[in-house]
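Archive entry. Fields below.
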Amino acid sequence: MKRKGIALVLALLTALGMNLAQANTAKKRFQASYLDLFDTVTSILGYETDEEAFQKVTAEIYDELLICDHLYDIYHEYPDLVNLCTINAHPGEALEVDQRIIDLLLVAREADQFSGHRMDVTLGAVLRIWHEARENGINHPESAYVPDLAELKAAKEHTGFDLLEIDAENCTVKLLDPETSLDVGALGKGYAVQRVCERLPEGYLLSVGGNVVATGPKPDGSPWVVGVQDPEGRGEGYLHKVNLVKGAVVTSGDYQRLYEVDGKAYHHIIDPETLFPGEKWRGVTVITEDSGLADAMSTSLFLMEQEEGQQLLDQMGAVAMWIGKDGKQLFSPGYEAYIKP
Amino acid sequence: MKKERSALTFRRGDAVAIAGVILFALALMGYYLFFFSAGEASVARIYQEGQVVRELRLDRDVEFVLEGDFRNVVTVQDGKIAITESDCPGADCVHSGWISRPGRSIVCLPNRVEIRLEGGELTDDDVDAVVQ
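PREDICTED_STRUCTURE:
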């Protein structure tokens, strides 16, 4: 009888032990972040059995993103590397480049076409003028100024994809106008994240400067939850939350990277038509399966009227939410199905 | 025969064993409830240049300064944390407001600072990431 009691205890303990053992092999949630990529915050969430496995994955992600960051950098050159900055500094020369630059520029050409030239990476000459004004305005608010329209118009003359020669076969790139320069903006990081995500296992969520991409559901099958920031709110104030299983969520808004001149705020999304910051919307959030084009799409939609934007969404099989100047939210068909109830 | 039948009857040893198992289970449950209880994030971990420079709980109000290339004033109040003052260009960190939920973070890129809320159980209200 005593033996039976002990047997019972042992049986229960064994069952408990098996449970604990199972819990140990189950995947746990890990998080890592980096502050030195693409001049923004990168955060990685993932489920792995142990920290070592997670660190192995994050190290690979970091290495690949770092290379892309250097390749797509237009402000710095690096030893033994031909990057976009090198291309900008050597117009008229056919430079042999990394395949990742060719791939990005081909995607950029696609974006230029579907956006009706609104998302144009050859706009460097115009964007450089705004970049200087913005940096000055943020660092020295007392001397903040608005760029001169005549100067912007003169720079616009040196933009357009016909001034960029991409030779995919020989892996070379050439700028045909000495004043033309490339600025891939958010497209570069979006494309880099897409590349990385293609090689990741399911159950990862990458956020690079608010460009959020999921590689598949969490191990329990549930979706990732992404908060869409309220432009008027701060901290944990969200307009709503969206469920994301696989694909990307990206927002373009007029409330980021601002500087002020005489009480008026100037944001960083420049409309190639007006050569000034886009003024149609407060923000646009796009949800799409093709995360490589998500940035290009949100930028394009931010600079388009709703109707034209909707046509683009239909063409790309994506959904969006627009926030009007009056703060009113408009949804494309299908967006609301993503909203977490 | 007689001996075997008596083995099936309930004895004091069995009671002790069962009580032991129940007590053990309760203790285990208590342990999990205590360490993995839902609610506010358990700890704010502050990283500078990728290293943890400070850890604090959000249940006691406090204010301190993080010196680096710039100067961040960090404030904990009513279970929330924020960078309330900064001399960095643009002061994006101040504009990101107050956070209190597990997994959320505030970053000051120019000062290489990240304040991340770690631990604490995620609830149905929490988000995994934010687009802005």
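CURATOR_NOTE: The radius of gyration of chain B is 25 Å.
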